[in-house]
Each structure stands twice: as structure tokens, then as C-alpha cells.
Amino acid sequence: MKFGFRLLIQRTVLGFTKSPNPNQNRNLHISASRILGLRCAINQTHKPCQNWGRFRSFPVTYYSYNKPNYVADYSTTLESRVNEKNFESIYVQGGGDLGKTVGEELRLKGIVGSEKIESCEEGVGRVETVAEKEAWRLLREAVVTYCGSPVGTLAANDPGDKMPLNYDQVFIRDFVPSALAFLLKGEGEIVRNFLLHTLQLQSWEKTVDCYSPGQGLMPASFKIRTVPLDDTKVEEVLDPDFGESAIGRVAPVDSGLWWIIMLRAYTKITGDFAMQERVDVQTGIKLILNLCLSDGFDMFPSLLVTDGSCMIDRRMGIHGHPLEIQSLFYSALRCAREMLAFDEGSKNLVRTINNRLSALSFHIREYYWIDMKKINEIYRYKTEEYSTEATNKFNIYPEQIPHWLMDWIPEGGGYMIGNLQPAHMDFRFFTLGNVWSIVSSLSTPKQSNSMLNLIESKWDDLVGHMPLKIVYPALELEEWRIITGSDPKNTPWSYHNGGSWPTLLWQFTLACIKMGRTELARKAVEVAETRLHADHWPEYYDTRSGRFIGKQSRLYQTWTIAGFLTSKMLLENPEKASLLFWEEDYDLLEICVCGLSKTGRKLCRRGAAKSQILV
Ligand code: GLC
Q: Per residue in 317-346, pLDDT tens?
């Protein structure tokens, strides 16, 4: 770990108008700095430096309005550099006495009125880029308060948007990267408030044509409304939307799962374990679990949902058992198992969770996974096999393998398909489901590595000009017409149908950190950084390689902003990132409730799965 000094000279333009003349501007900057002095936050929580003066290199970083920041060696005098640049701020980073010397030089030359030097660990105290600084400002501006306390962030906060629809609401899924950004910054209050307030909304009575959703459902979003109490007083109320107003009237299955995941992230990062022990929080977890674990007609351990019940919240042919929901379900079960108070009352529930986790991981690892070898197997499948011994259990007709896939699948990579139903495999690559199966260890370590290999070798298709494609490839022509219902927002390579969503960067970063492939995440963050800032933080990008800002994309989309910040902070704090992912749970591999091994009638296939994982 490197240590260094940071000396920050921040120009503050309050009360000054920007001049078109760069020279005038420069003078303005300097005089502004003189008047307002140097501002540098000293973070009391930083660990004291152990190695003062260890690093002798002394880079000087300039930031300017129109030019990208750059680093120059401290070889010419600072004064000449300052005078030739139209600067916004100067950051001087370095170690030892040199830091103090430069600070003193700046002060003596009258460039700054006062100076402070902060010692910092590189990473924690790293200087923010222009994009990061703007992102933090925008994220804070998107914060919504309820009775004076911060409770969430707006989905989008574009002052120029005259038709915000429901983008002026706090979405549960959208808040996740905001929550992480705040938590990683050491600000837990907003996350705690969010978790407790959404908990109160959990059992709110809402109906669609006199039918209400199941108890335990978390809303997709909520809005704070001001309601008049009498002529003089008003009251603020939290108004949830469970799908009864949402386009398509879909209940958000992912909300409750994300809520549980967020709760665990909150307790892990803040250490506030009392939060998860609260009676109302324990009840909230159980209500969500009861809803997900209740018996139905299903033969599979995966969760059966309608189309559009997650991030893709419009018709896109993902009804059934979409991978995204299964990955979130798996990690929510793992989180809940960790957080439930273990007593007589929860014993059975924990047993049910363990059985489901075990069955679910087997199911996904075995039947959703495809690579060259597996595709070749499917290609040669026999069909109409009637027996419990069938190889082609779901009666998949080989003709279903799409042409694009035969050429696309790389030698050293593989992925989880999007969905599995009787006689139907959805071969599309869905990014969130795949990266979250890495994060949650729903996939085996070998599969996780192969998925990242695939993303690396298909970089132009999945990252291109903007990370990351929500799904690859897009539905076109007749398929688009039938599957999306001719949705004009989901045209090929736009929005949910093959658009590129920068918010997916943080989940990808987490997966890369977990698998020791940070170079991939850094590369993606680099692709995103300049463009997002220049393009005003769009919600999504269009075209095959993500070259254009999305047709109907919102600007100043909060989860784009927060996803970028979270990715950066995760890369800088890998030890914190490790609190947010899961390793393989070897005990789960031992669980088998099918009873086959006991009867000796047949071999339980789960034994084979175990040996696969340990490879
Ligand atoms: C869109 C997205 C959805 C998101 C919402 C708010 O509807 O499909 O995932 O939560 O916008 O940003």
C-alpha cells in the first residue's frame, strides 16, 4: 500500500461569473483561491500514515474545465505551470518533506492563502477525478428526504425532463448502488432509513381491480407526497407502488430479494448488527421468504415469475424461471440464513432455506450452464425420452440452438442461459444474472471463471463503447414483434432489448474482484468514465456496440451515477468488496433430501455435481 501527501487547492467560484477569456478566468481562479483559501477535508477516520516520506516521486495533477486531467512531474516550477493553465483545482500528491515544501512554495507565491496537508493512504485518500466529483454532487442532489431525514434517491434527476413519469420515485433496485456508494463512503444513515421505511411499506394494502398482492411483497418504488392536513398544515406520506401503477402492472419480485441483500450489506459494512436483530426486521425477512418459499405447482427449485418482474420490467420473453431472479433468490436466501435469529421459531425455516439453496444451485449449475461441450451435447440430443433416467430431461429440440450461438461461443468460455422451461432454452446472454451468479457463488468457481473469459473474449459485443449489454443478442424482426408485443421502446439494440446499461458496471466489478480479474473491471470503468460524464449520465445506450445515447434514455440517471462511483470505490477497497460476495458453501453440497441414496434404488445425481465443483 502506498502512502502520500495530498494537498488540495480548490477553486470555489461562488459569486463569480465564468469569463469567456481564459486569461481572465485564470486570474479569477487565483484570486478566488486567494480569497477563499485552500480547502482540504481532514478525514479523522483515516488511519495515520506509518511511512511518511517513503515515496519520493512527486506528481502534480491539474484539472481544467475542458481538458482531461493529467499528471506531470514536478520538474518545472509550479508557478509557471499554474500560470499557463486554466485550472479549476490543483492537486499535489507526494510524500515526505517535498509535500510540505511545495505547499509552502505555493503559499509564498501567493497562489494560495493558506494550506493544509493531509496524509493519506493511496486509495482512501486518492484524489477524485472530475467525473467522480460531479457524480458525488449529482448523487447527493438526488437524495430524497422524508420528515427531514434522507430515505433514498430519485431514479433520475434531470431538471430538463418535463415528463418524468415514475422516474421521480425511489426505486428499490435502483437504490442498491446508491446505498453501496454511501456505505462505502461511511454514510450509513440513509441506508438504514431506507431499509426501515420500505419495511413499513411491505404490508401496505394495494390492489389492482380489487385483488391485492401477497403479504411480504416489497414495492417496486415509492414516492413522497405532501398531503394537506388542514388549511395551515401539510403532512408527508410515503406512497408505494407495487406494480398497480407501473407500466404493465407487474409485481416486482426482485424488490424483496434486493432488500434482504441490502440489509446484509448494511450490517456487514457498518457493523450495526442490532439492526438485523430487530423484531420488525426479522419479521420482514420472514415475510419475504414465506412468499418466495411457499409451495406451488412447480417441479423446479427455481422461482417461477411473470415477465418483467425484475430489472427488465417490460415484456421481453423472460417469464418462467429467468436467471436474474434465480441469482438474486439464491443470494437472498444465503443472506437471510446468515441474518435470521436462530431459535425454535426459525429452525424449520432455516432447514427449508438450506434444502432450497442446495437444490437450486444443483439445478442452475447443471441445466443452465452452456459451453462448447454442452452445446455439442444438446446438438446431438435425442428427444421424446419418457423416463426418470432421460438425458434430455426438458425435451429440448436441438433445432432450438440459434445460429448465432454456434459461431459465437468461445473455446474457453461459457455462461448461464437466460431461462429454462419445458422444451425451451432461452440462449440469450443476460449480464445481470450471469455476473450475480458469480457474486453469489450460485455458479461453480470454474463456471465463474469461464463466464469472465467469455466476457473478455466477447468484449466488443458485451462492452463495446459502453459497459454493459443488458442482454445479447437483441430480438429482431418477427421475434421482436411476437415476444415484445411490438414494443417501440424495446426495438432491436435499444433499452432492454440489447441496450447497454452503465449501472451494470458495479455488479461486474464485484464479480471481477471476487475472481481476481480486476484488470477487466478497470478496463470497463475506464471505458465508462469519460463518456458518462460527457453524456450527462444516461440511463442506457443504443446500437450493437453502445455508441449512441439511448433513444428514450433519461439523463442524470441515479443508478448510472451511483454504479460508477460504487465500482470505483470497490476497486479501491477490495477488502470491503469481499463483504459483498459469497464463497462456495461446501456444506450445501452435502445436503440431499431426495432419499434416493437411502433406498439404493438409483444413484442420486447430486454426488456427481459435488465432484464437479471441487475440480
Ligand atoms: C426502467 C427500468 C427499471 C428501473 C426503472 C427506474 O423502468 O427498466 O429497471 O428500475 O426504469 O430507473
A: 999 999 999 999 999 999 999 999 988 889
